[in-house]
Structures are given as structure tokens and as C-alpha cells.
TrEMBL record:
It comes from Gallibacterium trehalosifermentans. The RuvA-RuvB-RuvC complex processes Holliday junction (HJ) DNA during genetic recombination and DNA repair. Endonuclease that resolves HJ intermediates. Cleaves cruciform DNA by making single-stranded nicks across the HJ at symmetrical positions within the homologous arms, yielding a 5'-phosphate and a 3'-hydroxyl group; requires a central core of homology in the junction. The consensus cleavage sequence is 5'-(A/T)TT(C/G)-3'. Cleavage occurs on the 3'-side of the TT dinucleotide at the point of strand exchange. It catalyses: Endonucleolytic cleavage at a junction such as a reciprocal single-stranded crossover between two homologous DNA duplexes (Holliday junction). It comes from the Bacteria. This is Crossover junction endodeoxyribonuclease RuvC.
Length: 189
């Protein structure tokens, strides 16, 4: 399974792509979509185009993205929500299921502490994926979101022996079923 993680932002949107083979996570790529313009509609268009290009390049099976959180500044929260929307639409236009994760859960999964800072996330992502250098902070956050999805899948597969498990994303359910000694994943809209 190829997982695209997105750390949305109206000026910098981080992305990270990993390939999950069983319990092994393989780094495929990461970076930042820089909008570098002042007007919001153009920034959103560049986020949409950038995510669409990444999807074309890596052909991910799922997109994992950070959930909306309440910011101190309402204007910033609205812009973040719009950036998320541009990335989500890029994925759903190509029939890619979208899964959302809270920032605290991502930090807890990767670092072990829900209040971890960006440096700690960078360090752990670098170690977990055996990278020779730390990725840029926004790219590391996106990789952490992808890792969180991979761990959610692994956890679901482990408990699937007891029955059937469902992970739910935007109008899509990812069902894990254990039969004949093998796990099977199936995305249903």
C-alpha cells in the first residue's frame, strides 16, 4: 500500500509518501508545496495542482491528512481548512480514499508523546524510515501522518483475527478481514 501524507498549510503544504509492505515502511519521497503568492484563491489552486501532481507521480492508494484543530486565530484556522479542502478534493477527484488524524495522535504514534515538538517528530521520522538526513519540518509532519495511517492499518490487521474491522474515511470504508491465514484489505465507497 502506498500512503500519501499531507500536512496542510496555506503557504507551505508538506507531503510525504511511504510504501507499506507488511510491517516494513519504505520511504518514497517527501517535500513541500510552496504557494509563494499573496491571494488565497491562487494559493489554493497551487495546493490542488501540487497534490494532483504528487498523486500522478506516486499513485498512492490512500491519502492521510491532519484533522482540523482550533487555532487561536480564526482567520488562520479558516485558511488552514481551505488548504485541507484543496488537498482533499485533489485526492477524491482521483477516487483516492481520505483518512484524517488528529495532530496529538500523530505525535503520540511517532514520538510517544502527544505534545511533542517539530524537532522530535523530525528526529523520529528520520529514524523510523532510516533516512540519511532529516526532512524539512512540514515534510516530516506529512511523513508522520502517513506513518500514523500505516500503524492504524497494522493495528486493524492485528485485531482483524477476531472478526472484521473497518477504518472509515471520506465516504470510504477500508475493511480488513482475516481468512485462510491471510489478511485482506478492501476499500469500499
Amino acid at each position: 500500500m502506498i500512503i500519501l501524507g499531507i500536512d496542510p498549510g496555506s503557504r507551505l503544504t508538506g507531503y510525504g509518501v511511504i510504501h507499506q509492505q507488511g510491517k516494513q515502511l519504505i520511504y518514497l519521497g517527501s517535500g513541500v508545496i510552496r504557494t509563494e503568492v499573496d491571494d488565497l484563491p491562487t494559493r489554493l489552486q497551487r495546493i490542488y495542482a501540487g497534490v494532483s501532481e504528487i498523486i500522478t507521480q506516486f499513485q498512492p492508494n490512500v491519502l492521510s491528512i491532519e484533522q482540523v484543530f482550533m487555532a487561536k486565530n480564526a482567520d488562520s484556522a479558516l485558511k488552514l481548512g481551505q488548504a485541507r479542502g484543496a488537498a482533499i478534493v485533489a485526492a477524491t477527484n482521483q477516487q483516492i480514499p481520505v483518512f484524517e488524524y488528529a495532530a496529538r495522535l500523530v505525535k503520540q504514534t511517532v514520538v510517544g508523546i502527544g505534545s511533542a515538538d517539530k524537532k522530535q517528530v523530525q528526529h523520529m521520522v528520520t529514524r523510523m524510515l532510516n533516512l540519511s538526513a532529516s526532512p524539512q519540518a512540514d515534510a516530516a509532519d506529512a511523513l508522520a501522518i502517513a506513518i500514523t495511517h500505516a500503524h492504524s492499518i497494522q493495528y486493524s490487521l492485528q485485531i482483524a483475527k477476531a472478526g472484521q474491522v473497518q477504518l472509515t474515511g471520506n465516504n470510504t470504508q477500508l475493511k480488513a478481514r482475516y481468512s485462510r491465514g491471510r489478511f485482506r484489505l478492501k476499500a469500499e465507497s
